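quick one, two chains, predict together pls
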Amino acid sequence: MKQFSIIGTLVPMLDAKNKVTGKAIYGADITLPNILYGKVLRSPYPHARILNIDTSRAEQLLGVKAVVTGADTPRIRWGAKGIDDEPILCFDGKVRYAGEEVAAVAAIDEDLAEEALDLIKVDYEELTAVFDPEEAMQPGAPQIHEEMPEVKNNVGFEVSFERGNVEEGFREADVIVKDKFMNTWVNQAYMEPSPCIASFDTSGKLTLYASTMWNSQVREAVSSALQIPLGKVRVIQPVIGGAFGGKMGGLPIHFITTLLARKAGRPVKVIQTREEDFITARHRCCVSLEVRMGAKKDGTITAEYRKAIGDQGAYMYLGPDFIITVGLRGDLLYRFKNTRYEGKLVYTNKCPPGAFRGFGNTQACFPRESLLDMLAEKLGMDTTELKLRNCARPGDVSPHGWPLNSCGLAECIEKTVESSGWKEKKAKKQPKRGIGIASTGHETDMRVLAFGGSVSILKLLEDGKVQLLSGEAEYGQGGQTSSAMAIAEELEIPMEDIEVVYPDTDITPYALGPLGSRVLSSQVTASRLAALEVKKQALGVASEMLKAKVEDLEMRRGKIYIRGTPERVVTLSDVGYYAIQRPGGSIIIGKGVDERNTERTLAIDHPTHYGPNVSASYFDTVVAEVEVDTETGEIRVLKLTVADDCGKVINLMGIEGQLQGATTQGLGATFTEQTILEEGRVLNPNFRNYLVPTSINVPPIDIIWVESNELGFAYGCKGGGESPGINSVIPAIANAIYDAVGVRIKTLPITPDKILKALAEREGK
Amino acid sequence: MKQEIELIVNGDIYQVMVKPSETLLEVLRNKIGLTGTKRGCDVGDCGACTVLIDGKSVPSCLVLAIAARGKEITTIEGVADGENLHPLQKAFMKYGAMQCGFCTPGMILAAKAFLDENPNPTEQEIKEAISGNLCRCTGYTKIIEAIKAVAEGK
């Protein structure tokens, strides 16, 4: 096996020093000359017609420079994924959720902007609202998008597909289990409230400083929805204070800040409050999922049927991709020959959901892994044995046509079982203690749009150092550092000699951003190829300088020698300088493209949704050990053993941190996190009542890296670190609770009162 | 009515005009330009705006600027000794105790105040000391490791 010099080691992230000294510049830290401050007026009603908006008093307030409403937009409905249903600033005269943006103000300070909001008079006619997807689908329910006659009973999107023959599969089964599960509305709760700054120059060119994971998409969205040519929109990513799927492109804050800046003719800064981010973040979609599974006596699964109903709130946004993904991604793990999936997205009068890590897998994993546990019990078989009997293996293709290539799932199961002492603990069960297991397969890349890969551009500068241009967003997940490590590995230069430019649509190439777990593998692969190209070009220039043939040259530690004649040497600095300054010179620029051989089967008009939407996936398994207090219903997680088949580890420090962080978020989603609504209004838009895990809550986490070798990516790497914690932790704990006290919780979060209620019901039987 | 006050921040004296309702967080960020102190919630729930006042860690969003007159205020910009990083800063880098970094300034200051008072803490005491500082990225493990390493003089 190849020995690496830096790949696989522990490397602090590139901007760590900026972050520990307070020098990292986040969106809210940026200011511009003559800047104004924007504030947004939000609807207090979940469903209402806007009869009139009178902004005159706000406009007259001294210091107010712009007030915008729907009338200031080009009245183009926007949509992220082919269903254009979002009227910016309710230009169609209707609000569809409490908290929706109705108007906005820019003033010379924040207090004045707030004061001006109070002076805007909006006459609403309240409409009957509907909050429950099942109710929304009933005949006679209020219609949320009556302007779209094709939408019947508020069903905004529907998808179904079957592989094999499910009916026959269930006939073959000796044992069938079925149940219904439900996750809950959880918020990304990134630490940085969303900022956005917009500024136009005299040519009409817009510069947006947006805390976004997806610069390219923000540019496209603002350009198309506000009718500004693409090249006149520049989106710069400052340092981002967390995103977790919540800071994608084309969000109301991007449109509104732009409209304010255009109308005021001055730069405008909008920083949302924590409350605004809690109310309007495009959270994790709540899905009720009915699932049925059948197996033969020997444990071979013969059929699976799933029916998902997603509460999509007021607008489709990323919904279609999401609900298709629930179907496709959920089936990566096991060799389901016969499987049928039906997914629906229903409009309700709530803030629309979007992406929050896991994107479909979290919703699919909890039901599937819970049901598998139930199936094992009914078969009289250990769950781990049932998993191993059915689990996907290297070289498989998923039921939906996703190639698995490398697949360390079996190893993940075996290693967590062994390391956790599963068998001994099962054999010698202690009262009120339990052990549970769950697994997930998560894609490592995905074809979201027409281009599914990544582009890196690497420049050799005159001083011999290199500069990497990549549009892939960085917000602490470490893609930039890992890409720099690949460059350091290939060019044999120190990390300090590599400068990574933050995403800026005027400078860095188009990028998809961190969707799924695609950045690490795709950006590292592209950056490695760019480094190899720089090396090739540098050798070419060096051959000219040394008057030697390229094939006689050797590059070592930033120097190029003639083989066997070590005194004839040029440095990368000599080469970089000479390349530019020589007569007819040109700069050394390497372009690396990671293009994936995939197909966009998530597209809403794809006839079958069958095909390689991803080129590789990573797998994981979590074993949870818990203790349940049957008096109080409280659950203590004693230990988590996590195996992650991440392919070759690039930066051990980075991926460990990713896994620990994701696992902690998974604990939050399991036990404490839930946005509570009453009549469509969020009751807990703050950290006091929306409980994210603190330093006290984290149990010991044992990590096992299963480094399967994914041939399609540089060094055999894949995505990693996210899925076990986000997806598998939840059902692993739910299964452990069942093992401990015999109650199965099927709705999230798992709270002490649910445990006590379930225990009481069991006693009553 | 605005009034002029003097604030001692990182050893320097700043004269600023403030409204009585303005918080120390707002004045540090918007008037003095020390943006290392982060605004995460504005109501004292998250700890991102933690600074030291006379050595004690406090959320600066809950302190009125006028109430901080005459006191020694330390922000993240004042933790390093010139080019020499504080041991906590070095340890946070070495142990990878941050990802997005938004909680990091507050976390380092909370840890500093704590270690200054308790140089030999147990792991449980470290966990409790930073329990008012939320981090959404790291899961805290590496933060706890970093603080422990400083306490143990590693």
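Chain A touches chain B through 58 residues (CB under 8 Å).
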